[in-house]
Design goal:
The protein is mostly beta strands. The protein has two domains: 88 residues, RimM (Elongation Factor Tu (Ef-tu), domain 3); 79 residues, Roll (SH3 type barrels). Helices cover 7% and strands 44% of the residues. The strands form two sheets. A seven-stranded mixed beta sheet has the order 11-12-7-8-9-10-13. It has a six-stranded antiparallel β-barrel with strand order 1-2-5-4-3-6.
């Protein structure tokens, strides 16, 4: 983090929108000096406390101060100095450069799953992950051109994103092996 008035570092190659990862959402303004409360997608994440800059929407901000508050962070950002400006950011996505994340070699981000093919443990195709639905129960949104029984028809499946249903993730091949429970609903799309 930088002290107020210290110039922002020059934009790096990792600053392109495609190289960013969503990590939080602005919940509200805090106080009268322009601080914002950012709720992390992963409540145990310390990313917002470790980065020196971030994006809210498409605007880059230098982080002047960040302090954890129960699964969220209070952020003081350079150039954001009053409550009205902070309040205008409510609901916007907070992202950081991928190269600022502390990832182990075998870590896979939710964002990396979108576009991966799904297959069952026996190798049968089971669709493509088109989105991650975040909520009390995170779920993979999987689109397929056939029903589980092999009959034709475009379907959408929502698979809870839990270890019991994800057998393997091969990030290089962009394949996720799933072991869904019997009876996962299939909605026409």
């Amino acid at each position: 983090m930088r002290t107020p008035g210290e110039p922002a570092p020059e934009a790096a190659d990792g600053d392109a929108a495609a190289d960013r990862v969503e990590v939080a959402t602005i919940a509200k303004a805090h106080g009268i000096r322009g601080e914002v409360l950012a709720v992390s997608i992963d409540p145990s994440s310390e990313t917002l406390g470790a980065v020196d800059h971030l994006w809210i929407g498409e605007r880059r901000y230098a982080v002047v101060a960040a302090r954890p508050v129960g699964g969220a962070y209070l952020l003081a950002l350079e150039g954001l100095t009053d409550r009205d400006a902070a309040a205008a950011l409510r609901g916007q996505v907070v992202s950081v450069a991928r190269d600022q994340l502390a990832l182990d070699d075998d870590d896979v981000l939710y964002a990396d799953l979108v576009g991966c093919r799904c297959q069952l443990a026996d190798g049968r195709p089971w669709g493509t992950i088109v989105a991650i639905e975040l909520g009390p129960q995170d779920r993979l949104v999987i689109h397929d051109d056939q029903h589980e029984d092999g009959s034709p028809g475009a379907v959408e499946r929502l698979l809870p994103l839990v270890d019991a249903f994800i057998a393997d993730v091969d990030a290089e091949r962009r394949v996720v092996v799933v072991t869904p429970p019997d009876g996962i609903p299939e909605e026409p799309r």
